[in-house]
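Problem: given the chain below (126 residues), write out its structure.
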Amino acid sequence: MAASPGSEGETLIFTCAGAAHGGQVANRAGVQLAKDGVGNLYCTAGVAAVIPEKVKRARDARLRIAIDGCDERCCHIVLEKAGTPAHIHVVVTDLGIEKEPAKPQMVTDTKKVAEHVKKVVVRRRP
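Solution.
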């Protein structure tokens, strides 16, 4: 279970929320992971805007998870530029999900990403 908001040792989940299907899947997977207790969904835009308290909380996190919608890796880049690189980085399109599919499968694709992230987190924890 994730530590309480603002506490050291917390797991933070940062997501892309781009307009394409891949970005929306990334964001919905982050929401689902937060609901499932994997970590706390956190404000990628606040880190990008270099809001001091947002950057500090990101920096203090024990585990930072970045979920990007495509290979442009915007979320990952935001975290790196803020000096708070992701410990776990997942790219939706690397999981075989198209950025803009002809027939989007939002529920199925979101579940696929969330389950993948859970497996990576479990392998990473002692």
